[in-house]
Amino acid sequence: xxxxxxxxxxxxxxxxxxxxxxxxxxxxxxxxxxxxxxxxxxxxxxxxxxxxxxxxxxxxxxxxxxxxxxxxxxxxxxxxxxxxxxxxxxxxxxxxxxxxxxxxxxxxxxxxxxxxxxxxxxxxxxxxxxxxxxxxxxxxxxxxxxxxxxxxxxxxxxxxxxxxxxxxxxxxxxxxxxxxxxxxxxxxxxxxxxxxxxxxxxxx
Length: 204
Known about the structure:
Number of helices: 7
Subcellular location: Endoplasmic reticulum membrane
Number of strands: 0
Main location: endoplasmic reticulum
Largest sheet: none
Radius of gyration: 19 Å
Pathway: Phospholipid metabolism; phosphatidylcholine biosynthesis; Lipid metabolism
Distance between the termini: 56 Å
Protein name: Phosphatidylethanolamine N-methyltransferase
Keywords: Endoplasmic reticulum, Lipid biosynthesis, Lipid metabolism, Membrane, Methyltransferase, Mitochondrion, Phospholipid biosynthesis, Phospholipid metabolism, S-adenosyl-L-methionine, Transferase, Transmembrane, Transmembrane helix
Order of helices and strands: HHHHHHH
């Protein structure tokens, strides 16, 4: 059972009306919304591919923008933590090293996902018509679905623990929720793209 009193005490440290906290929440929510809207628009219109001269160039451009936005999100996340109090009794070595372990595992998942998928596989290349030959099942996809997203979430969780930050923990929950919603939209749409590919191959 969830210890409600502990949760109330934990989030009593968080000022959700703080400007930095609000900006961090907005940046977290905006990123997956942005790349899903733009990628679906590209899939429907091929407008970016026409502007940049090829689907691959357009995908690299969108991927670069996503990377920049993720850097902005991480900066806002960190600044929001700095502006809010630490949790009393958590500023110890065990908390720091637990956070470090979460961040290390998350980084492993993110980097190994990128290496398995490549740049276009990571940054929505299938929406640009750059499809992979087969589904990736190697590590870390052999362990869990969407390891890039959950690895990123683990990094934020670790970062929050390292700073003994209740605000960081709450923002990490926002990250997890935003990714969960993104998966609900991306999963079926991506599956449909590959289903159409298989259908086209069978009709030839």
